[in-house]
Amino acid sequence: MRIVSLVPSLTEAVATSAPGLLVGVTDWCTRPADLAAARIGGTKNPDIAAVLALRPDLVVANEEENRADDLAALRSAGTEVLVTEVRTLDQAFTELARVLAVCGLPRPRWLDEAEAAWTALPRPGAPRRAIVPVWRRPWVVLGRDTFAGDVLARLGVENVYAGHAERYPRVPLDELNAAGAGLVVLPDEPYRFTADDGPEAFPGLPAALVDGRYLTWYGPSLVRAPAALRAALR
To answer: 78 with 56: CB under 8 angstroms?
Structure first.
């Protein structure tokens, strides 16, 4: 098959299992580092003509990361598009298995290892209430129904804004600091929070700097994510 991936997580999943299948990926598909495939633009602004020129048998996408108009344009041109929905860890495992099966691949060992790693997690103690910014200027945080929020919940971290009406609400900084959280979780993507850029906005609040790939990507990174995130959240 000739496959184009519009999702970094799915790119890594397919490339790890059968790198020769991918003929096109987005500019944000950084794993594996040595991936040899044409670059067709961003997740939100793919070059549709470039995708079609690659003559893919299948385009893999995600309902959150990719725009419906772009996917409709690909379908209108006669291209098969598989759209995933991943808002929980369980959904991630199900959708990864589905994508790989549609690609004609056997279930990979890393997927079994990932499920085992998360199943083996000890039961968390009393949850720690946290705010989880994903952007600043303006401040944007995790809200309801997100994959990263479910991942954190399994690690004993309760997202203060999990009940918000929006999935990624914009919240003023003063409101964030008054939210009653005991922790701020700062990933390094999509905004690159660092020790010098982020924690200073939350004086007196412990800050956990986490690898955004382990928090938001679903794919081979899920094997190491439980241990890496637990260490960062201590």
So the answer is: no
Closest C-alpha among 219, 215, 218 to residue 228:
215
| The pLDDT of residue 125 is above 90 | no
* Mean pLDDT score across all residues of the chain: 96
pTM metric for this prediction: 0.93
Give residue 53's identity as a one-letter amino acid code: A
Both tokens assigned to 190: 């999509």
70 touches 43 (CB < 8 A): no
Residue 70 has pLDDT above 90, yes or no: yes
| pLDDT tens figures, 129-154 | 999 999 999 999 999 999 999 999 99
Neighbours of 232 (CB within 10 A): 17
Question: Cis before residue 32, ω within 30 degrees of 0?
Answer: yes
> Dihedral through CA 195, CA 33, CA 147, CA 134, nearest 10?
30
Pick the closest to residue 199 from 188, 190, 212 (CA basis). 188
Bond prior to 138 in cis (omega within 30° of 0): yes
Q: Is residue 99 within 8 Å of residue 14, measured between CB atoms?
A: yes
